[in-house]
Amino acid sequence: MKHSNKSRRPAKFWPVMGFATLAGMRSMSAPAFLSHYLSRQPHAGLDGSSLRFMQKPATATILKTVAAGEMVADKMPFMPNRIAPEVLLGRLVSGALVGAAWYRSRHGSALGGGLLGGLVAVASTIVSYALRTGISEKSGVPVALVGVGEDALVLAGGAALLRGQQPAHGEWRPM
């Protein structure tokens, strides 16, 4: 078996795909999950960065509170659709934030991560909207109830993303 002398590069692309997908489904959940992770495992890549606020425990607490509020507000009939321009813009910004923070934390380009995160969040927004409304129409289940299932998916997906960032027992991962 051939061994490489190259050091392993920290994963950037796939975690951003996951976090940004969550941002498209629930805009505040992705930053809440990422900030939770970073507040418990700060990364040197964010030192001196304007994104270092994502590592602060207070930021994590605020984002988790806002994310919980979003899950409740999402079910209200007066809320605009996620594909409304102002709501879509918020999801794009959320995806860009998690992408930029993740890439920067891994000593990568915040701009590259932000672009990837923003694009994925927009795509996820459109797909999740189509799925949610389609499931509701085909099954006759109210959209709000389908939204509860979507909340469960977001929570499970976020938890899985965080578990995936933990080193395996006995494995060392550089920051």
UniProtKB/TrEMBL annotation:
Tell me the superkingdom of the source.
Bacteria
Residues covered by the DUF4126 domain: 17-157
Instruction: Give TM regions.
Output: 110-131
User: Per the record, a Pfam family?
Assistant: DUF4126
Instruction: Name the keywords, alphabetized.
Output: Membrane, Transmembrane, Transmembrane helix
Q: Does the keyword Membrane apply?
A: yes
Q: Which InterPro entries match?
A: DUF4126 (IPR025196)
Question: Mind telling me what this protein is named?
Answer: DUF4126 family protein
